[in-house]
């Protein structure tokens, strides 16, 4: 008999219908009430077991984590807490679960503990909700771009280019480390490596994305990117997914409009399509924050925070304006910032970004026109200001609790200016001839940005550690599973 | 003024409306007719240039590949070949293109040549069509699974497990190859590597997918996978994208049904949503095949072939039945196969698969229940047949011209049998404890398969080399761009 997914059963009114439920036992109370979950919903279906007429051996095996197939009749529930339940007529144990050994007992486990058993944490309510939201957000991203005629490009993961410039890279090789082929001068002979040269894992698909945008108009990537940085923080992963749209004929303003529209679209989509999960995550966060002192708790609950983002325009201002605000801010005056803001040109730290977003504007902020010296080579140079200071057409979107969630810019489309800047920043132009070709043959103004997908999931689920929003996190000294 | 995308203009009837077009010059005939393309459609918009009133310097710069912004009025075209055109009132050159140097002249280029300039081939009609179809297929895959409540899982790209068993792997490391840290016995000290142990690029997300399926029920992956095999063929890539659904409570039959449904869904979606592109690709293939002898040309054109797949059930038979057919087949009797089929147990070669699909059944074929010895450790063991031969619940889907497009199986969910098989195949069970946990705690029958995305794109676009359906192919000695 075909199984009915529990999510459908919970919404069903076909009382009296015979159904088959398959799933995993959450709890078994009083030798009578079996809570079964099949992953389709956070909510369990209650199965009423006929204690008298069920084999004792079966009853004993109805332990937390065991897999069961239940035949029975859907009935209105007399008990509290559920509208429907299944009156079991036959119970089959598909797979046992030794209650002495199964690590997920029906009690609260710490997120740290669950991270160690990431292969089993999917079976908890919290991670069911988190990965349902992650799934919905992925789909929302694709739908957003598809509706707007953007072309999804799979940019390469293995790259022979080391000029992406976004951070430390992982090497990819098939050489035998115990017998490295060497040239006469003793250096490694990469001609014998798989690709005939040194290769790395990509840190960004942007440069290849630009090639495609200058043919298709609007494109986006959505794939894994990598940073070999020894950052053990709650916001960094060595392997993470990134969304990078790139648009021909877009200037900085268009770029900001698109990014804001995308963020609002996917938040709206999650609220509409993951109502049960986000409600659960909201309550989880309230519980979690009860252990914190009052002033550290969120002012808004999760759903209120998401709605607040939808209802307000993101605040847009230049780096120069932001520096002025920060300079005269209370924490700067009172020397409470770890890095005091003194001069124009300073790179903004997390504490400064959070001050702007969480204290000063109290909403998402888009900062533009950063000093050229602290930004990448491919960003479009502005005319120097009246004081001769050089800025680029960058834009970063800062979110409460997250910091930078989007980083983007208008790109330098002028061949001469781009080459000059690459030379200043010691980027070898000879290896980048393919990139420069876009500026040689029909160059156009264009823009793009990168959205860190895990940071987005973090924001929308209200989780606080980025390792809890990707199935199997990769961090320094950890590549388990 | 906001630009209108050419795809919209070509469908517009707003005669007399002032519009702005931005794009790249394809051709400029008679100092009058400018064909402009912005990537939104294979078709160009014709711009009529007022020769008399346009600066000679501008006219000179209207070369193939140059980027332009045109203001003008949309009018009904008097010429043949287009319904509408734009009567230009102002022409701006956004980016020049030196006609002496621009590699894409308005003539036919070979696919081999275009592969060398993969960064520019996006601007050709063929690759515009190919990557539009690829984009549509990606979206169709996500939509198919989303409609069915499957959860999209991002399984890890960097893996510490080398037991995936699907092929040779790339190593991932941050060690300095010129100064490798070594233990006392001279071997490399991986404790100092980024992850504290040897790591590789994934060859499959299946094992992690199983972990998720045994919590969520139905999941799928869609991400890059890697093979470090020195295969220089038209069907192999070192980096390619794979779709891997995994379903709890699915047996082999359900698995086959889902795979067939998915393939038909995405073919239907491409036909419905890429009509113009597939029409173009159909004609391209007809042209290409004109240089071939009659008997090597396709019996059906591209669209007929796709419709044929939609209209017919895939032929399902066991390996054992297939061997019997192959043994008595004409090419086997006449010793025309390179590898003659003699005994049960032989691995099928491409020539055998093609015979079954293209000659014998003349439609897609699903082969099941392969000999255990030639399949992976995780496939579910059947009861031995009357002759004591051991088979596993594998299923491969074979497509005309492509060969294996899907490989899948019901998984071995029985702990003891799985461990026994791993030991027989020398797979270290101690590193795989996380995988075995799924069989310890609530194991259930489950199944899944892998669909090679590029092979799907190859089939639906009618292209013949897999390097032409991924933006930047990675193959032995090639990681350009």
From TrEMBL, chains A, B:
Catalysed reactions, semicolon-separated: tRNA(Asn) + L-asparagine + ATP = L-asparaginyl-tRNA(Asn) + AMP + diphosphate + H(+)
Places the protein is found: Cytoplasm
Keyword presence, Transit peptide: no
EC identifiers of the protein: 6.1.1.22
Location (main, coarse): cytoplasm
Aminoacyl-transfer RNA synthetases class-II family profile domain sequence ranges: 131-471
Domain of life, per lineage: Bacteria
First-level EC class: ligase
Record-linked SUPFAM superfamilies: Class II aaRS and biotin synthetases, Nucleic acid-binding proteins
PANTHER family xrefs: ASPARAGINE--TRNA LIGASE, MITOCHONDRIAL-RELATED (PTHR22594:SF34), ASPARTYL/LYSYL-TRNA SYNTHETASE (PTHR22594)
Listed name of the protein: Asparagine--tRNA ligase
Organism name: Olivibacter ginsenosidimutans
